[in-house]
Amino acid sequence: MPRFFFHIRDGATLIEDPDGSELPDLAAAREEAAQGARFLLAEKLKAGEVLDGQRFEITSAEGVVLALLLFKDLVKLR
């Protein structure tokens, strides 16, 4: 199985995922990132922090960016 890395970009800051996760495909990696982002968003909301600006950069083991997931895109408001 391929290994995907879930780096968090917050403005100019990059928090690198040193271990990554083995997942069957990019679709599974996107779902893993969405679940992680929802957890992190909930923690920020509880702490009264701003929810805008962060994203996951999903990369391959070679460091190629395969997908971007903006945290704010996961917030559904009516």
UniProtKB/TrEMBL annotation:
Matching Pfam families: DUF6894
DUF6894 domain sequence ranges: 3-67
InterPro entries the UniProt entry points to: DUF6894 (IPR054189)
Protein name: DUF6894 domain-containing protein
Phylogenetic lineage: Bacteria, Pseudomonadati, Pseudomonadota, Alphaproteobacteria, Hyphomicrobiales
